[in-house]
Amino acid sequence: MRPNATTLAMRDPALAALMGAWSGGNFGSESPGTGQSDFGTDGFGRDFAFAGDASADFAAEFGADDMGADSWGADFGAAAPLARRPTPAAAIAAWHKVGRQTARTDSRVRLLEPNSGSTVKVQRYSFSVNQALVMGTAAAITASGNPDTTIRPQRVTMNAPAAGFITVTEIKVANVAVTVGGIGDAFEYSPIGVDMSLDMPTLSPANRATVLGFYTGFVPPGFVLGSAYTFAASFKGPATIVA
């Protein structure tokens, strides 16, 4: 059969319509004039959301949310939209909350590391001066020594086992006498004594602590005459940590 305009147009309806060789409302019909086809409203248009109610689906899938300025800008290099700036009241509240959390955290850390956050490391140490004695043999007490690190003594304790065992004439720390007259009893500075703290100067390794006094020769019950005994005077207080 010899081709005519209709058969030629049917070979490529879209090209025919573009070139103006096809007109009318039957574009895409299986046969001219029917008005219904798989490419019409019930077919191509509905399946691919180009006609009828289905156009709403296309708008939702490819609308402003997915292809608009916001998404395209973020995807192709433009700065993403910034979060909404908080109000001054909200910013202050957040700042105070962070401050409270930081302070709470610091207080808990100091339970494990008291020197956390400090450039100076200080702990409570004990420094002692000693003298060897023989039970029952009277002797002068001149216990003296230098600490290994800087210490600020706040209390001194002495291991006198009973009153009348040793008398104390002077306690000197960093060349400063912290006894200002009279004779005391070493038993007053017993570890079980109450409120026996003294205001003593800071003692460095370059200075000495000295306890002067006298062992009376008294042998308390439970001790053996002629046995060795070490007298100890201990100075306790904050000190720099020894590395």
Order of helices and strands: HHHHHHHEEEEEEEE
**Span between termini:** 109 Å
The oligomerization state is single chain
How many domains? The number is 3
Structure, briefly:
This protein has helices at 5-11, 13-19, 41-47, 55-62, 64-67, 69-75, 88-112; strands at residues 122-134, 139-145, 155-158, 166-173, 176-177, 184-185, 209-215, 228-240. It is of the alpha+beta class and 243 residues long.
Topology:
Blueprint: H1 5-11, H2 13-19, H3 41-47, H4 55-62, H5 64-67, H6 69-75, H7 88-112, E1 122-134, E2 139-145, E3 155-158, E4 166-173, E5 176-177, E6 184-185, E7 209-215, E8 228-240
Antiparallel strand pairs: 1-8, 2-7, 3-8, 4-5, 4-6, 4-7
Describe this structure in words.
The structure is a single chain. The longest helix has 25 residues, at 88-112. Strand 4 and strand 5 (176-177) form a beta hairpin. The protein is α+β, with helices and mostly antiparallel strands. The protein starts with a helix and ends with a strand. The chain has seven helices and eight strands. The radius of gyration is 50 Å and the shape is rod-shaped. It has helices spanning 5-11, 13-19, 41-47, 55-62, 64-67, 69-75, 88-112, and strands at 122-134, 139-145, 155-158, 166-173, 176-177, 184-185, 209-215, 228-240.
